[in-house]
Structures are given as C-alpha cells and as structure tokens.
Amino acid sequence: MHWKNPLFKMYWDKQDITAVTKVIKRGSYWTMGPEVDQLEACISSFIGKKYGVAYNSGTSALHAALLAYGIKHGDEVIVPSFTFIATANVVVLTGANPVFADIEQQSYGLDPANVQEKITNKTKAIIPVHYGGAPCKNIKALQEIAEDHHLVLLEDAAESLGAKIHSKNVGNFGKAAMFSFCQNKVITAGEGGIMLTDSKNVAEKLKLIRSHGRVENKEGYFATTQDMDYIQAGYNYRLPSINAALILSQFKKFNKIIQMRREKATYYTKQLKKIPAIRTPTEVKGEYHVYQLYTIELPDKKTRDRLQQCLTKAGIMTKIYFEPIHLKTFYKKEFNYKKDDLPVTEEMAEKVLTLPLYPTLKKKEMDYIINSIKKGCR
Q: How much is the CA Rg of the chain, to the nearest whole Å?
C-alpha cells in the first residue's frame, strides 16, 4: 500500500552519500575497513563504555553477547514479551530457555517484582528492553536484582540510543548493552548493531564469535598473507565498512536528529493530550526520551482497532509495537505459554498504537494525522 504518511522515513543528507561513496571508490576493504574500528570507538565513547564490537545487526550482537557470557543449553534467561521477537529468539538460539516476565505500565519495561518471582537456580541472565526511545523506568532496580543473584544484565537498548536517566546514558546499567542501526532507528545504515561492554575478556570473545572464531592479528584477515588460527566455532556477523561509514556520518547529525524528533513528539503530545481517550508518552522528571517511537495508548482493544482502521483508510500508517511474543505460535508450541500468563503485557498490547514520527515530518502532515485521530476517536 502507498501510504500518505508512512510510519518512518530515514533522515539523510549529502554527507551520508559522500561517506558511502568514499568507501566504494576505495575499491577495497568493504568489510573490516577502518570505519568499523572508528564506529566502535565513537559509540563506546559516546555511551561511556570501554569496548564496542560492531555487528551486522542488533540481533547478531545480542546473540553473540549471550554466547560470550556463557549462556548455554538448559539455562534460563528472563526477558519481556513486550518487545521485538529477536529479544527472545536469541535466547532460544543459544539453547537456553526464555522465561517471560511481565512489564510495568509507564515505560513498558520489565517489572522488577515479577522478574524476582521468575528467578530460579537455572536463571543466568536478564534482558531488560528500553522501549521506543525511552529508558526502562526500573532499570536500576533490575540492576540490583541482577547483582544480588549474580546474574548477567544485558540491556536491549536497540531503540534508545541517547536516552538517559539523570544524565546517565542508557547502556551503562548492565554488564553489556546492545544498540541497533536498523532502518527505523534514530540513526541507521539500513542494518547494523553494536555491543558495548567494560570487559576486555568479553570484548575479545565477541570478536571471535563475530568472525568465525578466528584469532586475527592487527592487520586483519583480508590484509595479510599469514595463516590464522580458529579457536572456536563462530559466525559471520561482521558489519560491512559501507554501513559503518554511513552510521558514522549519521552520528554527526545525532543531536540535530534527536532535537527534531523531540520537537515533533512535543507537538503531538500538546495536541493529543486534549483527547480524553488518548494517553500520550510521558517523560518523567530526570529522564530523557529520544522518541524512536511515538506510542499512544487507547482505553481498550476495540477503540484502538477502530482508530487504526480509520487511520489506515486515511492513508496513515500505524503499527502495534508490540504484540506479545509468548502468544506467538512458536512460543506457545515449544514453551507452553498461553493467554493470561502475562496480564499486564497482554493488556498493554491491546491498547498501544504507534504513530508516524520522523525528523522531516511536516507540521501540516502532523495536523492531518491529528485531525484524523480526532475523527477516529469520536
């Protein structure tokens, strides 16, 4: 369908084209080029972690992190069901079992009380999600739970690069943190991801897993005649240099992009909070939201679905982020999850609706969306 207002658009300029063209014209090292190292240093420095390891996707990065921390068959990893399915899938791909915990209603992050109830002697890790550009409200409590039980806290911050709690960047609460550069993220190269950690040992393991389990010298595999050893099985999870160059170029505009997104979100909120049936995203004092998503909440599923249908007819794309993972066919069949297992998650999933938001969204386009919402909420 051709949307009058798509859910998102990538923000780009001539700098991005120049950055990519430079790598292409170089005619070599379209993977494992210097741009990858530069990106790793750039993002790790920005967040405040010692090491960054770039990947071809956030999913690859999260999978590699679980392997690097020794998560294996028979272990349990606590995850939310209110997230993109990759958060749970990567656990399954290690052979471990995903244990779904419920969420709280403000930031849609993991509920610490419910997480505490799900911990067993098989639990090895917790993966909290920072939803839609907002920090997970209870990330500090989850950090304390993980420390008390000697568990690995891996932050899935795919959607929240730049989000903060009391000036502390999301990504600094866990042992490691993943950020994504998929096409709908704040800065993007179409695909890409990075895992950050303060552990040199973990960073070295992440590099081995990323590239076939190969021990590389300083020159790198593609720049030497020397043979290299392979000390474990690994994957081809490398990020192409072209993608790294594009992300670096995008990052130069990061503050500008965030400002534009926050301005759009402020305008939405000012107008939509006048509609009694709608709950708009909230930014609690001390928190900083980058609005990768602008998600509203309706009173019930019937009202939400009716509004979505109305907006679709008006050519406005919306999306439900997220339908519960534990109710997807694979997880019901393989892990025996069923309806009512996570009441808050299931309730929120029936109420939420994500609206179009991107830096170049014009005021007249937003007014059209807002007026269409008003009609749909009558």
A: 21
Is the distance from CB of 278 to CB of 297 less than 8 angstroms?
A: yes
Residue span of the structural domain in which 349 resides: 254-376
- Assess contact for 221 and 211: CB atoms under 8 A: yes
Q: Choose among 173, 107, 177, 108: nearest CA to 146.
A: 173
Ramachandran category for residue 51: left, alpha or beta (phi over 0 → left; psi -120 to 50 → alpha): beta
Q: Of 251, 267, 285, which closes a domain?
A: 251
Q: Please, are residues 194 and 158 in contact by the beta-carbon 8 Å criterion? A: no
Is 271 in the same domain as 228?
A: no
The answer to whether residues 181 and 188 touch, using CB atoms and an 8 Å cutoff, is: yes
Do the domain assignments include residue 313? yes
CA 96 to chain CA centroid, Å, is 21
In terms of Cα–Cα distance, which of 132, 127, 131, 107 is closest to 115? 127
Q: pLDDT tens-digit profile of 174-189?
A: 999 999 999 999 999 9
What does the alpha-carbon distance between residue 372 and residue 38 come to, in Å, rounded to a whole number?
Answer: 45
**Tens-place pLDDT, residues 36-89:** 999 999 999 999 999 999 999 999 999 999 999 999 999 999 999 999 999 999
**62 found inside a domain:** yes
Q: Residue 346's domain is classified under what CATH number? A: 3.90.1150.10
Q: Which of 235, 251, 267 is the last residue of a domain?
A: 251
Domain annotation covers residue 6: no
Across the strands, what pairs with 240? Answer: 31
pTM for this structure?
0.97
Does 301 share its domain with 372?
yes
